[in-house]
Specification:
With 489 residues, the protein is of the alpha/beta class. It is built from 14 helices and 17 strands. The longest helix is centred in the last third of the chain and has 25 residues.
Length: 489
């Protein structure tokens, strides 16, 4: 038997000197683990069963996967979905103190001497059987309102971008918690062994500004096993970094390398019982399989002209929101569990009328096309589509209010998101805000309520989807959250 170099540093007697943690680790992953697995999923022990399918939902899910269309920066609900015609008569007047109350303001407007009410310059109309109000900026979205569920009463405590995005995506305003996609991957596993269970696609909006950061921790796994973190696809070169073999290394040689590395890792795992070693082995194998599957996935040339026309002129341009929506549908077809799109550029503190128009043009047609495309292919019923940002915008102008120009500050007291497919009631408008779209007056939905509901649609009880870390059981919804049953189909 060949003795590898690492064996020289660990004589046979070392195996007898197990630490207490290693002993219990081996016990937990031995007969007891196999017995538990056989009870939870008998099919695992059938011939050819795939161990990657081990995680099971808590109850029958309505959705098998998620496409999360995240509008980074905070879209203005007042200019897109939350129609407040009464503000036109109040335009330019100071926002009543009774409306604003003692709520926190950002440092960008807290020093203003007055807070001029700012009505939208855009026209609204009701659409579909639901009669949902939609701005003229989103004519394509208006055409699919009867597939959508609008939640107008979302609210959050966060008032600045990074804490607000982190809160919505991880359930906590401070970094260090797993992302929604990582929790979903951890709870449900993957249905495609050749692609990651969690994929991230990023696009830059037409009105995006330089100070528009997105951090990889927003799709990270934190203290969950690292194989649950999101894999970010790039718009140029290899879709995933280091996907191609280096010059001079062929597929057979790469396979030989991985076999040797795997053998070393398995020997190390036998001694130390470290879950991250198992993760590393699995990720090496996943990367090897991705070399064959990802290039074909990212190559859109097999899509027909009709499809490109539906998603809009930018659908042929890699890295645009339209191209990413089309790629999201392709990922959904391949049973990728969680597909996260980030579209930058929604932070309209100034020049809102022009910049919001640009942003809306970026996303309107692709969003509507994605809904129609999923439905036409029979995927919408089992795919949960989510659209929204980290908060909304204020009813008052930030800085000077001009006749044809204004900006709005961050506003977490109320904002709008929409959902579609995956067990959500279509053609519904849920929740209501006051006459200023400043406070929620009916059916409030907190961030934790939203995330509890989304997990419920995936067949996961948010109170039971936990991971013990540093002596505490953590979950996406922290210690709060209620499922919004009124929007469930």
């Amino acid at each position: 038997m060949t003795m590898h170099s690492h064996d020289l540093n660990h004589p046979p007697m070392a195996d007898a000197r197990l630490t207490r943690r290693q002993f219990f680790g081996r016990t937990a992953t031995g007969i007891g683990g196999a017995a538990l697995a056989s009870l939870l999923r008998p099919s695992l022990f059938a011939a050819g069963a795939d161990s990657a399918a081990f995680p099971v939902p808590h109850f029958a899910p309505k959705a098998k996967r998620v496409i999360y269309l995240f509008m980074h920066g905070g879209p203005s609900q007042l200019d897109l979905f939350d129609h407040k015609p009464g503000l036109r008569a109040r335009h330019g007047q100071d926002l009543p103190d009774s409306v604003r109350g003692a709520q926190r303001l950002t440092g960008m407007t807290s020093g203003q001497k007055n807070f001029p009410v700012t009505s939208s310059i855009f026209n609204f109309a009701q659409h579909g059987r639901s009669g949902a109000w939609v701005s003229e900026l989103l004519p394509h979205t208006a055409g699919v309102v009867d597939e959508l569920c609008f939640i107008r009463s979302l609210h959050t405590e966060a008032i600045n971008h990074d804490p607000a995005v982190t809160f919505l995506q991880t359930g906590h305003q401070q970094p260090g918690r797993p992302s929604f996609g990582a929790w979903t991957s951890y709870g449900l596993g993957s249905e495609n062994k050749n692609l990651p269970s969690f994929v991230v696609l990023i696009s830059r909006g037409s009105a995006a500004r330089p100070a528009d950061p997105l951090y990889a921790r927003l799709w990270g796994s934190a203290f969950l096993p690292s194989n649950h973190q999101g894999v970010s696809f790039r718009s140029s070169g290899d879709p995933v970094l280091y996907l191609s073999n280096p010059a001079g290394l062929d597929v057979a040689s790469r396979r030989d390398q991985l076999d040797v590395i795997g053998e070393l890792n398995r020997a190390h795992q036998a001694r130390h019982i470290d879950p991250e070693i198992e993760t590393r082995i699995a990720q090496y194998e996943m990367a090897f399989r991705m070399q064959a599957t990802v290039p074909g996935l990212a190559d859109l040339r097999d899509e027909g002209e009709k499809t490109f026309s539906a998603y809009g002129p930018q659908a042929r341009v890699p890295g645009t929101f339209a191209a990413n929506c089309l790629l999201a549908r392709r990922l959904a077809e391949r049973d990728v569990r969680f597909i996260q799109l980030y579209h930058r550029g929604w932070d309209q503190h100034y020049n809102l009328p022009s910049d919001l128009r640009l942003q809306s043009e970026d996303i309107d047609q692709p969003c509507a096309a994605l809904i129609r495309d999923l439905k036409q292919r029979g995927l919408l019923d089992e795919t949960l589509v989510i659209w929204g940002g980290e908060f909304g915008r204020t009813a008052y102008s930030q800085g000077k209010l001009e006749a044809a120009n204004y900006g709005r500050d961050h506003h977490g007291r109320c904002f709008t998101m929409w959902l579609a497919g995956g067990g959500v009631k279509p053609g519904v408008v849920y929740g209501e805000t006051d006459d200023f779209s400043y406070n929620v007056v009916r059916d409030p939905v907190h961030v934790h309520d939203l995330n509890a509901t989304l997990l419920h649609l995936l067949g996961l009880d948010h109170t039971r989807l936990t991971f013990k870390f540093q002596g505490r059981n953590f979950r996406l919804t922290d210690v709060e959250g209620n499922v919004v049953k009124a929007i469930l189909a």
